[in-house]
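Figure 3 (text version): structure tokens given as input.
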């Protein structure tokens, strides 16, 4: 019988550096869903468990095919360790499935470019290679420096950590340093329970591609990841839709084509702001002969006026958007599985359940982003529809 190998992805809802970080989209996919996708594709992995205290992350995890374990508050704070989350998730998994875990992996979804080969590498080191623990590392050739400690009372300034500053050997003459990537760790489950720490016994180092090493800790890291995603995701298709996948695009209005704010004048008339780039994107989608529809619960002349400007049919003043969408698909002969629906709030969730490509804008409610199959990097009202048109028609749009 093959060993039971369980991946645990700790994903708290609280994040100070990047709000809702684990739901941030890279390459159109929330970080937690990217990690789940690669873990589920690994050869040796039995199950993927996401430990979270957040409803949006839980929705994203279930949508991506993971088991969700609700993390108690006492191990969900800023000082909680990843080890505590992994131990709790192991206990919950074993109690739920009535099976002993043989090896457990800790995978950090804030490493957006982790691949299934890395996951299998650390898992194989433990379940096939006899190691007690394993981690991903990348070759590192830099000289590391450290400031002098204040209590040292030295005037020498900084000193070398992995070198003597008075001697600068050539790169090829230095021992190879290896950088812990922070992406994936594997542990023998019984040994991990005893040690209470991810490193114990014989620790195997699994080398990975240094170009893919990136940990998202602040907004600049997230921006870099989004810029690199087209390069690293090119050989791993399926994250974003193309015109081969869909026949129709259905758009919510408030919060999707606008920023969800409304200005009201002295006479009670409402004014909203839209993005010219979205208009260009919708025109390109219309030119590509995709079916288009604006669907809104609001009975508002602003919605109708925008639809006329875009030359797009509109259904507004709708109580049940899902029923209206279902009827529209039947009347137009459109397979709901080939519909891309763009939304931002919880009243869009029933429509998400109907279509093959539910898409959330970056500013959407956390639960909506969690339920989406793809998420824009751009907020609603700031060019999100133009971004989606670029997915479908190519980045030159």
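Below: residues designed for each position.
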């Amino acid at each position: 019988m093959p060993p039971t190998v369980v991946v645990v992805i700790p994903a708290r809802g609280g994040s100070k550096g990047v709000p809702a970080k684990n739901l941030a989209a890279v390459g159109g996919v929330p970080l937690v869903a990217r990690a789940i996708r690669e873990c589920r594709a690994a050869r040796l992995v039995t199950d993927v468990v996401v430990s979270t205290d957040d409803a949006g992350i839980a929705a994203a995890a279930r949508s991506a095919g993971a088991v969700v374990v609700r993390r108690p508050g006492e191990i969900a704070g800023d000082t909680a360790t990843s080890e505590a989350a992994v131990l709790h998730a192991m206990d919950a998994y074993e109690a739920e499935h009535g099976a002993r875990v043989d090896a457990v992996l800790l995978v950090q979804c804030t490493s957006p470019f982790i691949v299934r080969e890395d996951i299998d590498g650390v898992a194989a080191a433990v379940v096939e290679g006899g190691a007690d623990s394993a981690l991903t590392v990348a070759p590192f050739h830099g000289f590391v420096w450290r400031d002098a400690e204040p209590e040292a009372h030295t005037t020498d300034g900084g000193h070398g950590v992995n070198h003597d500053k008075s001697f600068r050997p050539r790169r090829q003459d230095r021992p190879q340093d290896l950088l812990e990537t922070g992406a994936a760790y594997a542990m023998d489950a019984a040994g991990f329970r005893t040690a209470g720490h991810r490193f114990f016994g014989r620790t195997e180092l699994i080398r990975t591609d240094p170009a893919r090493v990136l940990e998202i800790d602040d907004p600049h890291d997230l921006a870099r990841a989004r810029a690199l995603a087209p390069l690293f995701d090119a050989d791993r298709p399926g994250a974003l839709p193309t015109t081969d996948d869909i026949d129709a695009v259905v758009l919510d209005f408030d919060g999707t084509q606008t920023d969800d704010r409304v200005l009201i004048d002295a006479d009670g008339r409402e004014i909203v702001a839209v993005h010219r780039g979205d208009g260009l994107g919708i025109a390109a989608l219309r030119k590509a002969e995709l079916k288009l529809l604006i669907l809104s619960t609001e009975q508002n002349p602003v919605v109708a006026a925008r639809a006329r400007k875009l030359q797009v049919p509109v259904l507004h003043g709708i109580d049940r958007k899902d029923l209206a969408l279902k009827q529209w698909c039947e009347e137009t002969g459109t397979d709901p599985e080939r519909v891309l629906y763009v939304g931002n709030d919880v009243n869009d969730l029933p429509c998400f359940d109907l279509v093959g490509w539910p898409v959330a804008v970056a500013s959407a409610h956390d639960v909506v982003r969690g339920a989406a199959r793809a998420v824009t990097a751009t907020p609603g009202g700031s060019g999100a529809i133009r971004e989606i048109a670029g997915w479908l028609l190519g980045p030159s749009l």
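The chain is about 30% helix and 20% strand.
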